[in-house]
Amino acid sequence: MTVAPEKTRVLIVDDSAAMRALLNKLLSHDPAIEVVGMAPEPHAAREMIKSLNPDVVTLDIEMPGMDGLSFLERIMRLRPMPVVMCSTLTARGTESTIEAMRLGAVDCIAKPSGNPLEIAQDGALLRKIVKAAARSSVRRTASPPAPVNVAQGTLRDVVIAVGASTGGVEALFSIIGALPPDCPPVLVVQHMPAAFTGSFATRLDKAARVQVLEAQHGMNLRRGTVYLAPGGGQHMELLGGTSGQIKLVAGDTVSGHRPSVDVLFRSVARLGSRAVGVILTGMGSDGALGLKAMRDAGARTLGQNRETCVVYGMPRSALEAGAVEKEFSLSAMPEAILGACRR
């Protein structure tokens, strides 16, 4: 007798009755997802979480009584569970969503909108994210990262390339926030909607001792600077050596993504031993083949360990491909990266 797989049980929290109805309709298209409740504001949601014990909560940001960020902070402090932010694509909305993911939200998605085809595409992405969130590992909000002190002149002339997806926002806050001002240039691909990467770069910049920029075509690499690939329509590559230029190129998705971690890693692999590759939490396998190319070329390659990943997908794929030299916990990763950069 075949046992039916358990459904992912979802609680929708949004102050708009129309949006609650739309999210319910889109999620219910998947027989593996069950919407167990819908709440118009956080106080009602709190009681539903207690009584319904959902696997995943989708959470709006601007609501009456208590805003979504305050509610999320309480969830992650008192009862950590997978939360997916469902945000409007406004400047205020994107900044708040980045803060939500820093606090521990698993992922973010823009509220479905547009014509029927666009709404259907948004729904497919929402269902994918919700099911991935149900398999994720969440913990209580971590303490701010401790800066890593490095003696001047001890870091080699290298380029650090980093790839992340689901759970990567929180991980990048932890890692980038700990890097010293004289850190070698860092190139980052984080899977997220195009509307969010500019706000993410700004928030990272405020929290770090290094400068964090949303990458632009033709930028020259500088020490003490992190370059975040813009979300959406272009891949990010490195041209030249450790003081080379950033190239943003249009193209098809690679490993299911654009920008793709694999594309970045393959371009950095040309530096050989003058590169360090880092693969962080995320679903899927983007980055595994590119990191293998880096390791085969002589680069140092590091992976985030299973215990501290929100989703142990990308690091596991890279480890199984023989691309990862050694795994580290999230708290140990900044020192591991700098150790790989030392002479």
UniProtKB/TrEMBL annotation:
Instruction: Describe the PTM.
Output: Phosphorylated by CheA. Phosphorylation of the N-terminal regulatory domain activates the methylesterase activity.
Enzyme nomenclature, EC number:
3.1.1.61, 3.5.1.44
Give the matching InterPro entries.
Answer: CheB-like, CheB_C, CheY-like_superfamily, Sig_transdc_resp-reg_Me-estase, Sig_transdc_resp-reg_receiver
| CheB-type methylesterase domain segment(s) | 145-343
- This protein's major location comes to cytoplasm
Report the residues modified as 4-aspartylphosphate: D60
SUPFAM superfamilies from the UniProt entry? CheY-like, Methylesterase CheB, C-terminal domain
Keyword Plastid in record:
no
Q: What is this protein called?
A: Protein-glutamate methylesterase/protein-glutamine glutaminase
The record lists the organism as Novosphingobium lindaniclasticum LE124
What is this organism's lineage?
A: Bacteria, Pseudomonadati, Pseudomonadota, Alphaproteobacteria, Sphingomonadales
Q: Which gene encodes it?
A: cheB
